[in-house]
Each structure stands twice: as structure tokens, then as C-alpha cells.
Amino acid sequence: QTQQITMTDRHSPVEPDADEEDTEMQAATAGGIPLGGVIYSFKKAKRNSLFYSGLLYTTFLAIFVTITMLIRPVDQTFQIQNAIIEGIAKDDMDSPRFEKTFFDMANYGDFWVWMFEVFYGNVFEGEWYNGEPRNRSHEYEDVPVMRYNRLQTAIRLRQSRVERDSCKTEEDNHELSRPCWGDYGTATAVTGNKHADRPTTDLTRWSTDLNYFEGRHDDGKQYKKSGYYVDLPINATRTLEILQTLVAERWVDENTRGIAIEMNTYNPAYDMSTVTRFKVDIRPGGLFIPSIEIFSARLYPYTSSIDGFRAFLELVFFFALLYYFWREGMEMRTEGWRYAQSFWNWVELANLTFFVVIMAYWLRYIGTFGPDRVSFKEQSVDKFQDLYTLTQVFSFTANMAAVNVVFSFVKFFKFLQLNQRMLLIWDVLTHAMGNIIPFMAIFVLITFAFTFAGHWLYGSRVFEFRTWNVAFGYLLRTLTEGIEYETLKNASPGATPLYVTAWIGIVTLVLLNMFIAILTDSYAFVQSRTKRMDELERDHVEDKENDWLLFLRSKLCCCFTPRNHETEKKILQLNKKAREMKEVLEMVDQERLWHTVLQTVTTEKDELSVEDVRPVCRAGHEGVPEMFLAGLVDAQQLTLDKPPRPATTMMEIGSLQTQISALEGDLQALLDINVIQYETKPSRPSSRAAQYSVGGAGGGGPPL
Q1: Is 175 exposed, middle or buried (0-12, 13-18, 19+ CB in 10 A)?
Q2: pTM of the model
Q3: Is 576 exposed, middle or buried (0-12, 13-18, 19+ CB in 10 A)?
Q4: DSSP element (H, E) containing 619
Q5: Contact in structure between 470 and 219 (CB atoms under 8 Å)
Q6: How far apart are CA 532 and CA 171, in angstroms?
Q7: Long-range contacts of 68-74 (CB under 8 A, 24+ apart)
Q8: What is the predicted pLDDT for the residue at 460?
């Protein structure tokens, strides 16, 4: 007989025999409760707790994304920056030998050809394509850079230099060891108001209070805030004279290690200022490494009606962030040391920390230069103004937002627990992580081996292998982009076939397929576990068709008014069970309980016993596991009878094997009895036995 134990209303008066009923309930659940009921009850409890928090966090993240998109319109920024790069950096030099761009610069001559033919020609272009002069109200107004972007301040040309004979090579090593110029550093840099023994005019100045200058990110040097500079005014004639003077005095020579041309422009259509820095690192080996830094920002982000709406969203976001910090603090206080054991808590802390850093840098951007920022509203013809520092802060804030949005969307996996199948990918990665971590260690070890081998084989000829860190990044990219075989073969013809074959064979064919196999195995395991959980849970779902619909109606009752008394009764009963289940789950660590449930599912058990629950119960008094199981049954009205397990192929095979083993045992017993009877009979066969002998009557064959 099926006995279904239901709980009495907890808000009703306690009956005289309530203690006896609790004792009976604990005794009934001492042997365990159906695992499917636990799974279904836990999912219902989690979806109740995650629904509102997930809805709130979705709104919070939507506000953050809206604020970021309004502050930094990416499409507008792309239009401005790409126009400058395509028009100046990628424009061809007027070379008599072959076409070159800024990125093809290889010597001092190329630098000055680019400065005169491309940079000066595009920035100070004085006529239209049909030869008509550009109309200007006065001499310095509206100097265009690629038509729509106007020079905001004077242009700054700066360089960092080293002392003569600053290399580390001993003078006695070779008769050609002097003169020499070493790499840039504190000990070798030229300091003070001198130009390394070169004649100079009053145009060049020395300063230690320039904005921060760093070369190419992977192999350039940090030139910091000191150096020599020349400001080019917004005047085509005067700028041309200055450039010609710099060429005449050989302003750039062997002492030069880093060059930067910094240009500030303003786009009136988008109200956006852009700083473009063209950089050239000159290495002691003679290599020229051109690169570009470009940042765009709105200098006055609170001027339009849209800005006012964004300011309101920023205020809402600030108070929401305070709420999340308060909630995390309360959870830390409640959980204690167990708080640090949850992965999601660490994701939450990282997410909130990034938000704080973003807000701090945004306030720094707003406060940089303070009242002096009003000077940027006017065009500075002869004076250079530092917009690089300001726009760099803005760009860093936007980059931090880009990093944090990844953490924010990773956190959505926590709310996907509302539906187990939506969490399938995360469960696969979690299960595979035990094998992925040692696999990644082996992969990195092998990649490092090929990195140093490639660096030593090709570093002297191939740009992608010039340093070991650049070579490591290049090898990782070859996994998707392929490897430049001809380039490597030209650098080292003998070793390249073996090197490329080994890299493709070991990494691409073996390791990558092994990684896929790890994920495939974990996917099969999680898929099988999820299927069994669905089978166990199926018998305990109260209303299979309207379960989620009823849940949504209970949460959004203000939008879905019950149409009949029966639906209203179901919603009230569902909310009542949710409150009772919340009280029951306070007895245990929920994450550890769910982990225990998953382990129990994989062991083919159908029940969750007291011993399974005991390790996940919170510290308290004796009998907590029994009370938890009884409370779970009471709150969710679970049946304690064992539902028949659906027949599966493996179960049928096992049943057949059991029957076959039993039949084999019976046959063996009968055979033993026949052998004993035969051995105990007289040697002379009876007349009836003689009839059944192989040889027939009178034959000498053995009896059948």
C-alpha cells in the first residue's frame, strides 16, 4: 500500500500529537527518501530564489551596458579613427623605387619622406581635389585632417635619445667597436638641455614633464616623461619651414631611439576629440618598428539631453552597486568561512571589484584637469595641449568595462540553474576541468618547447619569432590561422620541414583531438546524468504541462490575474510550499547538497539516505539530517513508496543473465544427480537399459 505523508499547515494551531507525528515522520524517512523528489524539490527551491535575483541582475547589467554604449559609441569612434589611420598611416609615400606606407618605414630617409609627403600633405592640405582653395575666415581656422576632423592644438614632434658610445661592447673587442649607440635606458639616455653633440636651434626643447611615452607594446621601450620636443603650429607655411630646418640639422640620427608625432583633432559631428600618436622605435640593430596609438573621447560628457538620461542611469547604477555590496556583506556574515568555498561568490566579488574600479576611473576622467578643461574648447594654434593623458584614462575605463562584461555574463550561468538543460555547457566544462587542467599544463609545456626552438631557429630572420613571447603568441595563433611555411623555410631550409611536421603532428593532430575527446567524454557523461535525473524527477512533477506557467504566474501575479478559483488555489499552494522549502533548506549547505545529489545520481541509487545528508547539514543540534528529510517530505508532500524503475536495456540484460545463471545451476545439479545414480548402479545393465544403448540390443555401447 502506498503511504503518502503530507504536512499539516504550519500556520495552523499545533495539535496535541504534533510531536508524535514528527517522530513518525522522521522514522518513516530514516531509510531515505526518493532521489527524484529531492531533485525536483531542490530545483523548485532554487528557481524561487534565483528568479527575482536573476531578474534584478539582468536589469542591473542592462543599465551598465546602456551607460557604456552611450558614453563610448563604438561605431562613431571607428569612423573617426579609421579615417585617420587609412588617410595618414596607410597612405603611400611618393617613393621613386616602390610604394611604402608608414608601417613599411625602414630608415631615416623613409621617416622624412613620410613626414613631408604623407603627414604634412594630408594634414595641411590647402585645396580641394579640383584645385580650388579651401575657404577660411582667417589664416588658422578649420585645418582639416581627412576632411571632417580638425586640428585642435599644435602638433608635437618628440624624441628620446641615448648617449654616444653607450653600448656595452668593450672597445678592445674590435677596431670598429666605436662609435656605438646602445639601447635606451636610465644609464644611457641623454638628459638635460643638450642634443647629443648635434647642432640645434632654439626650436628644440628639453622637458621632464611630458606625457607618458611608451614604444610598441611587445618589443618597444618605455621612454617615460622626459625627452626633446618641437611643436608644429597650425600654420602650413610655418610648419613646413620648421620641418625643413629639422632635416637640415639632422634632428633624427643614430642617437635617436624613440620618435612620436602627437596630433589632437576634434570632430564636430560627434563632439569627440581624438589623440593620434605615430610612434617609431629604432633598435640598436637598425630595425625601425612603426606603430600607432589612437584614443577618442568626449571631453564634455554631460551636455545633451541623452547625457542627462545617462546621468540618471549612472545614479541608479551606483545605488544598485551599493545594494549588491550590502548583500555580499550580509552573506559573508551569515556564511562565515563557507563563503570562500563557493565558486560563484568569487565570481561575484571579482565582478563587483571591477565595477568599483570602473567607477573610480570614470570619476578620475571627469576630474582630470578640473576647471582648466574649459581651455580645450578653444583651438590652440601655437601651443600644444596634453589630451593624451585624459583620453588614455577614458580608454582604460572602457577597456575595464570590456573585461568586466565577460565576468558579468559568466555570472548568468548561475541563473541558468533555473533549467538544468540550459546549464549543460557549464556542467560539461565543470566535469571536464579535472582533465583539462593537466592537459593544459602539458600543452603549455610542449608549446614552450616549440617556442624556444622556433625563436632560436627563425628569430633572426622572421618577425613573428624575434622574441620568445611574440613567438609563443604566434604559435597559438597558428592553431586557427595556419603557419607561414614558405617564410620559415626561407629562414631555415633544413630545419623547417621537421619543425613544421612535428608542430602539426604533435599539437594540431594529437593534442587538439585529445582536447576534443575530453570534452566529448564529459558531454556524454553529463548528458547521461541529466537524462537519469529527468527520469527520476518525472514521477514527482505535480503538473507536467503547466509547471513553469504556474510558476511564472505565481511570480508575476501583478501581470497574470488568476481566471478561476482553482488556479488561484494552486498559486497560493505553490507560494506556501516555496516558503516552507526555504525554511527547510536553511538546515543544509545548498551547494554541497546539490553536489551530493549529483554524486548519488551517478551511483545508480534511487534514494537519498540520512548518511548522505549528514555531511551537508549545518552545525546545530542532533538529528538535523532526520529533521531535514522529514521537513523536505512534509513541505513538498513527497510519496515515500518507491516508484517502479522503467525497464532499460541494461536492466533486461542483467535480468536475463540472472535467469541464465539460475538455469545453469539447475542443469548442473541434475547432471550431478545423474552421474551419482550411474556410478551407484550395477555394471550389468537391465533389459530396459539395453534397449537404449547406443549399440542397440546386445550391443556393447555405453548407456544413453
Answers
A1: exposed
A2: 0.73
A3: middle
A4: none
A5: yes
A6: 79
A7: 68/398, 68/401, 68/405, 70/306, 70/307, 70/309, 70/310, 71/298, 71/301, 71/310, 71/398, 72/297, 72/394, 72/398, 73/270
A8: 87
